[in-house]
Specification:
Blueprint: H1 14-35, H2 41-55, E1 59-63, H3 66-76, E2 84-88, H4 94-101, E3 105-109, H5 120-126, E4 131-137, H6 147-157, E5 160-164, E6 185-189, E7 203-207, H7 210-219, E8 224-226, E9 229-230, H8 241-251, H9 254-274, E10 292-293, E11 299-300, E12 303-304, E13 312-316, H10 319-328, H11 358-366, E14 367-370, H12 378-395
Parallel strand pairs: 2-3, 2-4, 4-5, 5-6
Antiparallel strand pairs: 1-7, 6-7, 8-9, 10-13, 11-12, 13-14
Helix pairs in contact: 1-8, 2-8, 3-4, 3-7, 9-12
Length: 396
């Protein structure tokens, strides 16, 4: 494999994507400027309809961010002091912080090491009479492996299941179920780095529940039912029309972009195997045949589950040394996440300690996200794997 001496690989390259769309986006922004509807309005309504159609769901409610999407769902459920919300400790901070902001208690649960999703048995073990909801996080672009089983647990105990799909817009299971079909709703982020990214903060709740959708439309606008008449204690969770206009342009390309991400992910798998760094997907332990543990797509009836690869995350030995080596050779990487939530200073008062969730703590020392975006070239991808192979030849 020829890595070349001058191939540089940024971890993310938003400029390449936007340059190709510049004219269409400028026309969309001009449309909003001429309308003088800058907050909510017809542009946001059109985006909601188009996203709902894309996901084959009846309702979509735009919001100011993915975090606010989660927050207003919990507000809609009336979650507050004395309530508990079971959340994975291996996820982005917002998954748990939204419960804490409402003075409910986040109850953490460990993950499983291949699909990176919360474990069913972890959920069952933590249900109490105070449990009001479970939040599953579809990390890195794949439906969390145990989501269907956790749905049955939630049904049994009569608690709400909420999907944190911030990284998984368009992901599906082999039965065709996508985000928003497992629980009460799914919450989406359109942060600029996402597969479908705005030009700032934006989010959405997608659901099959008409009553919830109607309630969220009020909650995002100060709980206002009609002008200056407020039914609920809500907030300012409204989406700007300029963000909706950008997202509408990008949504038309999303299926193509996600297909390209999948192709690159499968090529990573082949390259790592050819380089002798990985025997195959789903390996659990490091050995002479597995210097790099590859992400495992879920399989059902021999059919791979559509993973949209928001991130391509591997597990590696000597992670920090490898990151520095790659950086020295112009290759960007990232770590999602270096500290599990139960060990975050913000949650110290909950009483968790190191060792409480061993899988998440091990992942925090091993996971490494490699560059993956539709504009990544094959030469750049060769360089990534080539440099990783070079590192293990030199230092292992």
């Amino acid at each position: 494999m020829d890595t070349g001496d001058v191939v540089r690989v940024p971890f993310l390259n938003l400029a390449a994507q936007h340059e190709a769309l510049q004219q269409e986006i400028e026309e969309a922004l001009q449309r909003v400027i001429r309308s003088y509807q800058f907050v909510l309005g017809s542009e946001v309504e059109e985006l909601e309809q188009e996203c709902a159609a894309y996901l084959h769901l009846p309702y979509a409610v735009a919001s100011s961010s993915g975090t606010d999407a989660l927050l207003m769902v919990l507000m809609g459920l009336g979650i507050g002091p004395g309530d508990e919300v079971i959340v994975p400790t291996w996820t982005f901070y917002a998954t748990a912080s939204v419960a804490a902001r409402l003075y409910a208690r986040p109850v953490f649960a460990d993950t499983e090491p291949r699909g990176f999703g919360i474990r069913t048995e972890e959920v069952e073990r933590r249900v109490t009479p105070r449990t009001r909801a479970v939040i599953v996080a579809h990390l890195y672009g794949q439906i969390a492996p145990a989501t269907e089983a956790i749905r049955e647990v939630c049904k049994h105990y009569g608690i709400a299941l909420i999907e944190d799909a911030a990284q998984a817009f368009g992901a599906q299971c082999s039965n065709g179920f996508g985000i928003g079909r497992f629980g009460l709703c799914a919450c989406v982020s359109f942060y600029p780095t996402k597969n479908l990214g705005a030009w700032g903060d934006a989010g959405m709740v997608v659901t099959q529940d008409a009553e919830l959708a109607g309630q969220l439309r009020l909650l995002r606008n100060h709980g206002m039912e009609q002008r200056y008449l407020h039914r609920y204690i809500g907030g300012n969770f409204r989406m700007d029309a300029l963000q909706a206009a950008v997202l509408r342009v990008k949504l038309r390309r999303l299926a193509e972009w996600n297909a390209r991400r999948r192709a690159l992910a499968h090529r990573y798998e082949r390259l790592f195997q050819e380089a002798g760094l990985a025997e195959g997907v789903g390996a659990m332990e490091f050995d002479a045949r597995n210097q790099v543990l590859l992400p495992a797509e879920l399989y059902a009836n021999a059919t791979p589950v559509p993973h949209v690869y928001h991130q391509y995350v591997v597990r590696v030995r000597h992670r920090e040394k490898l990151r520095q080596y790659l950086a020295d050779h112009g290759i960007g990487t990232e770590v999602y996440y270096p500290v599990p939530l139960h060990l975050q200073p913000a949650f110290h008062s909950l009483g968790y300690r190191p060792g409480d969730f061993p899988v998440a703590e091990r992942l925090a020392a091993e996971v490494l996200a490699l560059p993956i975006y539709p504009e990544l070239t094959l030469q750049q991808q060769d360089a990534v794997v080539g440099r990783i192979a070079e590192f293990f030849r030199r230092y292992d």
